[in-house]
Amino acid sequence: MKRITRIGVKGLLAAVLFSSTVLAAEKKPLFLKEGVWRGVFTVNEANVPFNFELKGKDPEHVVFTLINGHRRDDFKVKRIADDSLFVKMNTYDAALFAKIESDGRITGEYRSLVPNFRGNALPFVAEAGKKYRFIEPGKDVKPAYDLSGKWELQIYSKEPTPNRIGLLKQEGNKLTGVIMSVVGDSRELEGTVQGDQFELSGFTGPSPIYIKGKINGDQSFSGELSLGIYNNVKFDGNKNAEAELPDPYKLTYLKEGYNKLDFTLPDLNGQQVSLSDAKYKGKVVIVEIIGTWCPNCTDQTAFLAPWFKKNKTRGVEAIAIGFEQKDDLEYARYTLGKLKDKYGIEYDILFGGIADKKVASEKLPALNRMMAFPTTIIIDRKGEVRQIHTGYTGEVTGQYFKSYVEKWNKDLDALIDEPAPQDVASIH
Signal sequence: where (predicted)? Predict the structure, then answer.
């Protein structure tokens, strides 16, 4: 009887092992369909759409590309389970956590990865093959007005807020554009005009942006701009071809009695670095105050890194001072190291502390105030500050960007051509 029982148990175990092996063999990792997808975030009670493309049939080499008008941002996809994926937002310490459903859809959340940061996750769902943004094909309503042009936006908020400028382009129902402020730009936004209503959204890695508005009878408009969950402001817009933002070269300046900048901060290896170090003596020095969490900062880095690589032998140095979402050098070594690797940075990167304008102002006491990340400070061969630029506006701003680049090259060429002080020239 005991022998029969043992045989029965062995047979049962063998059957279980065999069936498990068969099931494991049959259970293949779910994979995503190649092509364009439409995702929708739920932000408060609003649906904020975004589009992306997936390329690569090999699960280990998939590229996830966010689409915003003409802009494309690529990210790597990592499988964390048979039905789950992880998309790190490159240098931004956030990611999409996605589950592949049995019907082929993706569901998931956008989450911050900052240690001990109590951020709010944004849920989303995405479907393959849907290329539209807001309105399904065939359901458009004739626009009441063409919004193409420059718009002056009056912002209403608890804190005094400078006006912003909207540069919009409309083709039929499709609306694209960018919102410019004294600290930078929104990156390219994409949306639609339906009757007297319009919507725009943008998602490039940082928190999604959503704008909703109504065109008034006098062809002005009113609306609300949302960045993430808590940053929401109302605005009125009036078309104004002459509208301009405050001069970015006059917003941040040295306090009375100062003509130089001074700081001593650790690099990513913990070594203290100062502008008084021999490395910078007699050279033109570009000091860039940034944060890896800041999209305008990464856009500025994408401009500065190749420029420096091309010009570094001309007697110019650059320093990036990063203020990060955690006041910890080890954490900054990770985030700023990612930035260095992605953009091939060949200049020094220092850690300034927590991402806070008040803290940045304390670390750089010669400045009247730290108004924006990024802020660019240009120092001549004598060690004197010659220019400070607040914020950064990228290629999507068109002529604004072209004018910035032209002035940048003209001013840097002139400073580089200046002779170094005699005592420094003899050393070099």
Answer: 1-24
